[in-house]
Fold each of these.
Amino acid sequence: MEKDLVKTCIETLGLTVGYKDNTLFQGLSLNLNAGELVCFMGPNGVGKSTLIRTLAGLQSPLSGQIAYKTSESQNPDDLPRHLAVVLTDRITAGNMTAADVISFGRYPYLNWTAQLSSNDDDILNQVLAKIRIEHLKNKKLHELSDGQVQMVMIARAVVQDTPIILLDEPTAHLDLNNRLEIMDLLKQLAHNSNKAILVSTHELDLAIQTADIIWLAGPDKKITTGIPEDLILDGTFDSIFQFKGFDLKTGRVHHEPHRGVSINLRGMGHEYLWTKNALERNGFIISEHNAAHLVNIDQGDGNLQWTLNGEIKFSSLQRLLQFLESKVH
Amino acid sequence: MQLTRFTRWGILLGLLVLLFVLNLSLGSVNIPFGDILRILFGETGSNEIYADIIWEFRVTKALTCILAGSALSIGGLQMQTLFRNALAGPDVLGLSSGASLAVSLLIMSQATGISLLSDPSPWAIVMAASIGAGGVFVIVMLISKRLRDNTSLLIIGLMMGAATASVVSVLQFLSKAEDQQAYLLWTFGSLGSLSWVEIEILFLIVITGLLIGTVSVKSLNAWLLGDNYARSIGIKLSQSRLLIILSTAILTGGVTAFCGPIAFVGLAVPHLTKLIIKTHNHRILLPAVTISGAILMLFCDIIAQLPGSSYVLPINAITALIGAPVVIWIVLKAKRVSI
């Protein structure tokens, strides 16, 4: 069946995860497959980091099994050559250069002298080029921005040259561009290098648009898996996150039309969508019926303007809104 | 300051040789510099007593400086790396406190009614200090097996230090004035009292400690990333922690047994070294810190013997005098401090 087409890298059987007096997940049966980017989502405190640490062999499971299908032997000493992690732990040794930090990824292959070979240097340079951070190579860690540090930590994991990479919230505290860049990089690593990649993240919209598979952790100590669209349409997302005023099926925040005034809006394309957004956000109803006002969007000769009731012209939505609000009061 | 790697090492080795010779040539008896060189190369000087002074007092003291300075500094480096704490030193495990307790028991036992030794010989003090440091080491090891993280180990070490220190003060309170003074003299530290036999023993101890430290070079680097990352790149944490603690215990315990508790050198030298050789890599740091520790100890000893006078100040006062400003500087620059 399907299972024969995909190569499973990690398989858990009845995995129970947590701490002695606090079970976080119970009886998990999960598969992490090669070539797939899996986004692991769930409310804060549900135990995402704990599961990632457990899968990475840094913490023992309470019960159940984790089978690493990439390794012939199940000897935990071999795991560093099969599985790399990016954690939320801060690196305090700020005077290390990016290259120093990244070269730690070669440690599973080095003997006790920790002497890097020219082959190790080649791998390091290839990864720097692949992730496009050559310019950071000789920068000290404390000279880098948060986003750059995160790219360096991901490079460290890639240099480890493992079929599995687990990342714990690599996009936290980063700006939108950095978040997009990192998710895009992880997707490429999964698809082009055929790695199994598990990322825990809070970036709902980003995850839905990039992930191949979503793992959704709910309050019942279980994890629901599936492709993003299925989980949206069957309501799993809604039931777990209990969105307040956000409709995931339309991807929009719900606005109460508190002004009770209908506006007939005429226009096209992006301009129509954003004008509608602005009006609805301010409590107006967009409707052709019983409309109190008519707004036309004119895009002639490159100048965008809005005409109210065929008379008054506005050069920005802000002016239009101010005028409408003064009329309603 | 852009210096090549070669010049930096040149500066370190040059300083070591310079301070070694300077250390030999300064003392209460003024010996001409030419005589010192001749005596070192096996000839006799202009005065027969000079050879005795050089070989039996000054060379032994300078060698003790090199051994003690290197050992304590490597101990400090290992503790700073293991605990990822810039203010850790070789004594954070409580070893020197354990040695102090044993020595104070030996010297001041008369007060408690049981006289262990009527007149404590130097060897008895060395034995007592070794047993004290070793005892604390065993306790720390037993506790560290039950602990998963290094910070708890650090706290245990500090608490052991505080507890033994208070027992020592109780003993001091109970003991006679002359015994108190004998103990006080031991805590001042002494680099000049070692015989050649004792130096040979200390040399073997220090070499053993340094070798164990050298074996840990990969895991020392990895500890800089923290426990989880170190483990994820294949470092066996408890085994590595045991080796690092063992090495530090041998180095600190050995030096404390022969020279008394010498403070601050182990804390300050790793930071001073990193000012000159800017790296985190213990492949480079271990030899660099070994040399720098020897340099600083020779320098402190030169100041302690107050060139031109017959007075010798306690070495511990001098190391603290030099070390304390360094520690203050570390705290002031805390943002840039990196282990």
Note: Chain A is about 30% helix and 25% strand.
Amino acid sequence: MRRPALEDVIGYILIIGVVTSLIMESAGLVLYTVDKGTVGIDLSDSEARVRSRDFFAYIIDVVASVLSNPSYASVMALGLVLLMLTPYLRVVASVVYFALSHNYKYVVITLIVLAMLTASLIAH
Amino acid sequence: MDLDIVVIMLVSAFAGFLGSLIGLGGGAIVIPVLTLLGVPLKQAIANSMITLIATSSGSASAYVRERLTNIKVAMYLEVFTVIGAIFGATIALLVPSRYLYFFFAAFLSTSFYGIRKRMSASNSHDNMDQDRFSKWLELEGTYYDESSSKEVNYKIVRAHLGGPAMMIAGLAAGMLGIGAGAFKVAIHELILKMPPKASSATSNFIIGMTALAGSTVFIASGLINVVLAGSIAVGATIGSLAGSRLLPKMNDKAIRTLFLTVLIYLILQMVYKGVASP
């Protein structure tokens, strides 16, 4: 089987990630309005606040909370997590692609980007 | 004005619309407007940065499949812009807001480059010999230009200067929660000698990564509010899609006048807020 072009793989990762995320955000906004009975935004609402010390542990928490007790906050947090994973996955896809093409120069370059993002995601 | 989902979505849609008409992304417009609505600056920066991933990746997806985006150039430059954005976002959390207002006003002024570019026709393309480093990095590309119906081949030069310059762009982007698209396009065209269409498409692609790098810092800060971020993301994406649909039909002069008016107003507002903040 011929390997699909990197451009197509990345193009689909980006569009699928963004569309899925925006659907969850929109659904969350509807849930919020129904739940609170208002469209007003309360910036001090702690339920709506994202607090992620370790992003990858946070992903597991958010998924677990959507499955066990879906609320506007968990659905929208999942939407934001998917949004952040979208460019992250396109770097992962690039590393794999350059490795399969034996372009080790670019494997190193893409791995540097991936390592910095990963470190920053878990180091706070 | 009270902060609510409808107002934030409308404002973000307008910012996304205007941003995509002028080709700069909406972050630079949405953040000052959010502060006018009473959102604290740092919160506006953090929530707008994460939504930039959505607004930039939507159009990036189309450009990359049309082969306008140069992925190797982007990956090389992202090494620098990611470092810059992580540092920039960390600085944003540490410095007092009043300095950020001034930085913001100063950075908005770089948007005038985008306007100047729209006014002049396509820039002349002088041929420079490719240096060894840029050649080693395999930085070259080809795309099909629909307006002139021919293939455009180009070779990138001075990658050793473009990288560090992109670190500064990333620093500003991370610190202010914006894409810094005008600045990135300027680096691509003036230093790397990339043709305009490839340059805009590649800049748009890199903005998504810079936004992720900044967001990796902000997501741990407690400044991100899912309702605020969600409203901006949905509004700005609708606005920028509408803008890119309407772009071919719009009168260039009308766009410029509208954008200049908004830009000057926002710069004055940010300077005023900086002076007035404690």
Note: The two ends of chain B are 22 Å apart (CA to CA).
Amino acid sequence: MARAVAVVGVGQTHHGRRMDVSYPDLVREAVVRVFEDTGLSPKDVDGVVSGTMPSMMEGVALTHLYFAEAMQAIGKPIFKTETCGSTGVSIAHTAFYWVASGMAEVVLAVGHEKMYEGDSQATMTTVLDPFYQRYFLAGAPGVFSMQSQLWATRYKLPQEKIRDAAAFISVTHHQSAFYNPYAHIKMKVTMEDVKNSRIIVYPIRLLDVCPNSDGACAVIFASEKAAKRLGRKVAWVKGVGYRGDEQFFGDSDKVVWQSAIEAAKQAYDQAGIKEPLKELDVAEVYNPFTYQEMMFYECFGFCEFGKAPDLVLRGTFSREGELPVCPSGGVLCTNPIGATGLIRVAEAAMQVTGRAGEHQVPGAKLALAHAMGGIDQFNGVMILGSEL
Amino acid sequence: MARKLTDRPVWIKGFGTSLDAYWIGDRDLLQGQLTIAAKRAYEMAGIKAPFEEIHLAEITEPYAFQELLWYERLGFCGPGQGGKLIDEGVTERGGLLPVNPSGGTLAWNPYVSRGLHRAVEAFLQIREEAGEKQVHREVKTALVHGTHGFAGQCHTVVILGS
């Protein structure tokens, strides 16, 4: 790995339905907060990286041009990295590499989305080629349902067991969201509520699924020299990994999912992690769908393939479990897509620096952040730790 | 790694990019950010006198007048002097500082890849592999330029060298 890089501070908007602000002001809210958090000012920033969903979402192309003022980026070098759902992690990687290379000391990463001004499912259709795939793969629920059923069939998982495990996950995350001031959906749900909510695409029901959210997230990455000058606990980037699959869905296995497995493996290797379930204290996994979340646990080596539902029902991944997953409430409760991956990074950084407030996992030292992009096409991972 | 892949690598000697304000009324459309982007690239490459030290330039000029403006902002000549370089044939293929022997963006403009095309053209010139487009002077140092956004809201300059 190149030179050491840390996340020195974060800023998030209050995610939700933000008809009270314009899109630039939504972005501004997160950017102002990261400067407040770190005590840095725009003049300290050497470069800016931003990203968001394809332009069809809000009908704005080249958002980095539109948000020059909101991001305090005038006169600064700017990069844009966009990988659909994994955008937030991709911009974190871009900022990390920029500082790690020695070409910048301080980089601001900004992810954002204003989904109440757009149509997420319609936008996602434009991700798929129009000749072969768009008609039957377009939109997230159908794809993730197909993927989940493939998994259940392969490992002969009884429908009732995965149904219960998914509901358990939904209840856990909805509870956690109450302890996160920035989370969008704050709703008391029971196992019965989840299992009886309306069907979206079998077996996925309404409470198994993320909301559309407006939100932005800003994270500052800095070199060791710049981080030490701040005199506060920072979150060191211990490992990164990113992989992509083929565009054509049928060309690779989405259960033993190579892009997820290899992205995590590269990050683990760089971080020196051999037993993720034991060594990680928190995992902010990209989890817009409860069923798919369990598949990520398996691909990331938290358990063997086919075994995730058992561990879920034993409470292994609950807030007091061996490896708390998404104590922030996760994507299931908050999903401003362009920001979501970066929020995972921000939450992981907050955990290992003891700044997660009411949803702090006590003593957290090593955290995983992850996001998936495209139609099950890309996966990106970043490991953050309290020690250099 | 570069030396493993080729015995004639072309090095990235300098890089600079800069973003202007979004709202047109808040910008100076003639000054812009190109000078700042170029300055960052020149500093990194150790270039103090661009007109003397750069042997060839491939710049992104979707409008003909912008080529003249970019000459000035890149420091090839003083403000308002861009036309002189044309009159004196300085930036022609056989001139002191050939600009866009490829035909540049005015010849072809695939918007997102056009900057990369400039880099490829400069690379080929340095390696003397530009075929009919080849200029007949030694090109050791080339400037590559890209821009996007209205009236050049964002500029990027790269210096390539053998």
Note: The beta strands of chain B are 11-19, 56-58, 141-148, 154-161.
